[in-house]
Design goal:
The chain has nine helices and ten strands. By secondary structure, the chain is an alpha/beta fold. The strands form two sheets. It has an eight-stranded parallel beta sheet with strand order 4-1-5-10-9-6-7-8, sandwiched between helices. Strands 2-3 form a two-stranded antiparallel sheet. The longest helix is centred in the C-terminal third of the chain and has 21 residues, at 321-341. It is globular, with a radius of gyration of 18 Å.
Length: 342
Amino acid sequence: MITVYSDEHQRHHGAAELDRGRLVPCVEQPARAEAVLQALTAANLGPIVPPDDVPIDILARIHEVGYLHFLKTAFARWQHPGDALPYCWPPGGRRQAPPPSLYGQLGHYAYDAGTPITAGTWEAATAAVRVTLSAIGHLHAGARMAFALCRPPGHHAGPDYYGGYCFFNNAAVAAQAWVEAGARVAILDVDYHHGNGTQDLFYRRDDVLVISIHADPAEEYPFYWGHADERGEGPGRGYNHNLPLPWGTGWIGYREALDQALSLVAAFKPDGLVVSLGLDTYAQDPIARFKLTSDNYPLLGRAIGTLNLPTLFVLEGGYHLATLGHHTVAVLRSFVLQAATS
């Protein structure tokens, strides 16, 4: 197993996020990736390599050019102490074009106040894209699996919006790169929160199957996406599947949804699989309400491994630092062991 990692992620370190009316320390922090790196190193699952200096022009085929320009320049335009956060949003949805004011643009492109733009956000987020593309490159070269140890995460980032700690959609970048190489691709999102950005990016496409197992948006972030009746539009109708689960879901209920998801992937007959690997399904995660235990993560990796597909795992959420690395290793190791017997 090959892991691709860049310490450029450390350049994005938000100080605070707005949570239920309070400014609190950001839970999405550099220590997350460092905990996973430490656990992977100790587990000796395979080489850990830096990303190649690959071009990232693919971003303009995933995200809108105006949005990319905004992210690249926002902090330099901010010119205030602290991180850039929005404080005003357009009522009833966005206007077609963003306003000239930076403050208006922050509210235009962001859909929450929990995703600060810092001095190093652009560098960290583009490094995560290079991590992802380099990992896909190893799969193109014949590897059966790879792990993109990405930070910031990506699955909440849409065509022209950010939020949920995400700026560029790393999983979507991976899928797009695979499609451009002639592959048929499935994305399986196992993060606690719905991958709304991934859904929006492929909602009208039939060349990428998107499946998400997540907390019911009737009671959980991101609230406005992720319902079971969101099945895609136009040519994408039937290629988007949401499997929302209630608060308190443990392994039995989760495994039922996982089996359904794996059956959908198998029926699609993809050439490759991208897994948005969120570990915030853990019972003690500070911002989630599922009840998975440490014993469940090897079962998750083993189940995904039964598909016997070339697979890229991309790190998404997971905020219980004491177990994040352990659970990541548990999924990856079990996948490797299952793949070896398939």
